[in-house]
Amino acid sequence: MSAAPSSNPSPALFVQDLRKFYGDVRAVDGLNLSVASGECFGLLGPNGAGKTTTIEICEGLLAPDSGRVELLGLAWQHHDRELRQRLGIQLQETQLGEKLTVEETVRLFRSFYARGRTVSDVIGLVQLEEKRTGRVGKLSGGQKQRLALACAIVGDPDLLFLDEPTTGLDPQSRRQLWDLITDFKALGRTIMLTTHYMDEAEILCDRVAIVDHGKVIALGTPLELIGSLGAEHVIEFSLAPDSAPIDGPTLRSIDGVRTARTLAGGYELQVSALHRTVPALLSLLAQRQLELAHLTTHSATLEDVFVSLTGRQLRNE
Amino acid sequence: MSDNSLWQLITVRFKEYTREPEALFWSFGFPILLAIGLGIAFRAKPADVVHVAVANTGPRGKPLADAIRRDSGLAVELLSLDSAATALRTGRVALVVSPGAVDGVEYQYDDTRPDARTARLMVNDAVQRGAGRGDVLPIAEQHVRERGSRYIDFVVPGLLGMTIMGGGIWGLGYSIVDQRRKNLLKRLVATPMSRAEYLASYVISRLVMLTIEVVVLLGFSVALFGVPMRGSWLSIAAVIVVSALAFGGFGLLIASRSKTIEGVSGLMNLSMLPMWVLSGVFFSSENFPRAVQPFIKALPLTATNDALRANMLRGEALVTLWPQLAVLATWMIVCFAIALKIFRWR
After folding, report:
1. pTM for the full model?
2. ipTM higher than 0.90?
3. B81: domain range?
């Protein structure tokens, strides 16, 4: 057994030309990734983009059709036992035993690892002390998700996988979970997470890979990706019913507009300078005697990056 | 000790089990209630009185009825010809006696009914004695009411076999599929947990639970009904353990692929129902045609029930039970081997 040297310059996670087909469906279709040690890396994409398949292959729960996966310099084929000890995993949907208490659940998971944190430590970390003797079945959605995180980090993993850690949670629970993940990151451990929430990726991730149809279509820090739009703001507007449509070239000729597209029932402009574009747009509409039904602006996000790359909305749940 | 993963898995099994009141009822309450019900229904009671009618067609009716009444095992009614015919047709009486005009009697009864044939023998004996017939040979009677030959003695080993089967198949099958359905199995496999320990925790906790179930059911049956335990405790324990492992393997095999409770419930009922009927739980499997006997004998529940009855009722030694033990061992090995090969760990 060749143990990996501790000062390994190789990435914490390395994925090369990964493929997994289900019949005609190309769930993962030539995906490449490299996650550095200590990095929090996000796989971002719509439902069905291949995120979960990818992460489950990395977790050793699914076998790829082809491609190479290396974790902490080790491969599943040869170092299954060692990898299991060094990984922390949270699956997308797991219902932990409802009849057990929080403490019993964490103690069970702790017993599988040769070393790790103490049970009370982990329960404290995920802020479930008050629920220590409470049944799992009685926990709220956010508390269950925190318990799942506790089970994932109880072995003190070098590499933590989180599959959609905050899906379905209320905003407060999501923020609480983000704080916990940020704390874990501060310990210098590597995290790989999947999400279809843009704000989550922007807040948590050092780098993001945008995945669509089983491939990485963009890669970089959230700021780099947003910067690649060349536009810092987005204007969305729609006209009163029965108004004459405005064509693309006209919109793109407005001062400061980088891209313009027609969305269902309205228009979306990516602009570099809001203060110049908004007055110009309003005067164009006045000149054509068109009436606004609605107008909003926001700072460009990863969502806009995805729309600009694929022409589709990301969160069309 | 408390940090050991096998120990943790086993204690978790127990906690989940004991925190499920319904499960406790089905494994402890149900067999006992069944035994009580059957014990009451088939309790030892004095031999039934046979009801017969005498047709009151003339002066000979009354003396004939009096002659028959001397046998305490017969209840006689003196009825008109019409009422007697109705009573016979509706089964209220087993036999109608009609006096002849001068002498002689006529019996009307259904010769395919055992109780009617008994009535015929008893009535005829009473009538002939009344007319002056005596015994040619002296007779002596001795009444033997042996423990072990009652219905309750037959059915308790059957209920025990059924408990072992249900515990093995439900205990393993249901909860494994439930964990798979909830993605919990996949989550556990994502940890360094040993898969062998996972399965062992089921088998071990099953055996411990079963020990309690067996002690409760047998203790109850012996204390309340005096069901005999003629075989050695060691051999009945061996039979129960081998049987429990066979049904454990069976349950594991049934649970090896299913992802839904509906799917696995169907498989469980499909496999248990024939054995409830065929394997001699409530009535002897000898009632089925000779041609299907080899098939019935190869069922694990038949082997269990036969071995339990041989031990409890006849006190047979373990070595004489080798055919049943061989059947059970074969089921155990084949089921475990296939189950482990095709088991879906996610």
Report:
1. 0.77
2. no
3. 50-130
